[in-house]
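Page 47, continued from p. 46.
Same chain as before, 534 aa.
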Amino acid sequence: MKRRSFIKKTTFTSIPLLLKGIPVVASSDLLSQSLEKMALAALNCDRILVIIQQNGGNDGLNTVFPLDKWSNLVNARANILMNQSQVLPLSGNLTTGLHPAMTEMKDLYDNGKMIIVQGVSYPNPIYSHFKATDIWFTGSGSNTDLDTGWLGRALDIKYPNFPNGYPTTDMPDPLAIQIGSTLPFSLQGPHINMGYSAPDPNALLNVINGVADPAPDSDYGHELTFLRLMKDQSNEYIKVIQKAYNATLNSSVTYPSNNKLADQLKIVAKLINGGLKTPVYIVNHPNSHDTHSAQVNANDKTQGAQATNLTLLSQAIGAFQKEIEFMGKSEQVSGMTFSEFGRRIKSNASQGTDHGAAAPVLFFGAMLNTSSQVTKTTYPVPGMIGKSPNLPTNATVSDQVEMQFDYRQLYTTVMQDWLCMTETEATQVLGTNFVKLPIFGSTLLSTADFDNESILLYPNPSVDGIVNLRFPDIVKDYVSISLLSINGQLVKSEIFKLNQRELRLDYSGFVQDAIYILSIDWNGNRFYKKAVFN
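Result:
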C-alpha cells in the first residue's frame, strides 16, 4: 500500500492543536508540500507570508467594482448590484471601488498597504470546486493532475530526508502552520501532515518517551512507524508553538468579536510576536463564498451573504495589520487572499451568481509596490495591477471575466520577490518559467540608465517571426532575453554578450499568430515589451 493510500484510509491524517478552541495543524507538507519550499527559503530571509483562503469561489465583481464599466455591470446583474454611490472609492484609482463592507481594506489601499491584482485565473479554467482547488494548491494546469503542492516540491529538493531528524537547530519550528478546521489537499503532500491535539492552549501534553511495540515488517507496519515519527515530531513542535503563543504582547489592538477569521489571524500574530520562525501561515475564511442564491439582501443590496463574508475578511485583515505594525514587524509580513475561482458576469434569477473564471487577488502589507503608481505595468495606477475587466454590453450566462494574469505568476513572484528563492528554483517548482508581477516594493527598479519606452521593438507586429531591439545607446554587457506566451510560459530564452545598440531576434519556428511578451534583463533591471506576430 502506498503512503498516500494509507493516509486516506486512516483516521490519523491530522492531529490538530487547539488554540482558543481553533484547530491548528503544524505542517511540513504545507500546501501539498508546496508551502514548505516557500517556508524553507523564507527562513533565511526573515519574511513571513500569510495566506487567506476564501473557499467556494468569491464573486470578484461584487468585491472589486469596475466603476468605469458600470453601465454594462447594471445590464448584467441589476438584481444584485448596489447603487454606484454606495461603492467605496479608492485613492488615485478612478476606475475601481470596493464593496462598502471593506472599509478597513479601503484604508489599507488608500495608505499604500494593499494591491489588487485583476483577472487572476489560468487557461481553460475548471468550474468544479474540488478540481479548481487542487489546481491552485498544486500549481498545475487545467489538464494536469499533480500529487504534490507547488512549494512542497521545492522542499523535497531542499530537505530530501524530511521528516527524519527534525526539528533541528536551523529549523526548530514548523515549516508551515495551517489554522482552521479545514484541512485542504494542499497539506497532504507525499508525506503525512504533522500536528498535535491539545484540549486547550495552555496545556502541553508530555511527549511519550516510552518505547513503542515494534511495528510489523509490512506495508502497514512501515506506515505505522512513519505515523509514530510524525507524532513524536509534533510533540516537539507543540513546545515551540506554545512558547511563542504565550509570549507577552502588550498590544492595544482590538480584534472584532464573532469573527472566526479574526480569531485565526490573532493566533498568527501572537506566534509571530513570540518569535516563531515559521515563514508561512494559512488561514481559512469560515464561510462559504459559493453564493448561487441570496448573495444580497433583496431590500438592501449592500447587505447579504457577500457583505457578511467581506466584513469578516476586512475587519480581520485590518486588525491583523495593525497588530503586526504595533509589534514592529510590518517589514517582515505580507498576506494574500485567494479563492478557487470567481463568478460569472451575469447574475442568476436567485439573486446569486454561478461558478466563473477569473477574479481579483488581494495582497496586503507594508512592503508592497504602492508608493505612487505600480511601475512596470501596462495600466499603471496606485495599488492595482491590471485593468477593470472587459464586460460585454449585454452579458449572457456564458460570459466570463477574462484572465489577465496566470495565478502561477503570483506564485513565482511570491517565491522570488518575497521568500528569497531564485528564478531557477521557482521554475523548478512550477515546471516552467512564468513572468513575475511587480507586487512587492523590492521589485521596484532604478530607471536611471533607461526606461521601458527607450527600448524600441520593431517591426511590431512582425510577419516573419523576426524582431529587432534597439537600445538607447551602445550596450557593452550581457543581456538576457526571454520570449514568453501571453500567459507567462517560457517559449525561448537566450543570453547575448553585446557591444552594439541593436539586437536581431529570430523567433521563426517558435511563434504562432499571437501576442507574446519579451522579458529583457539588462544592467540589473527587467523590462517587458509586448510583441505581436502575424
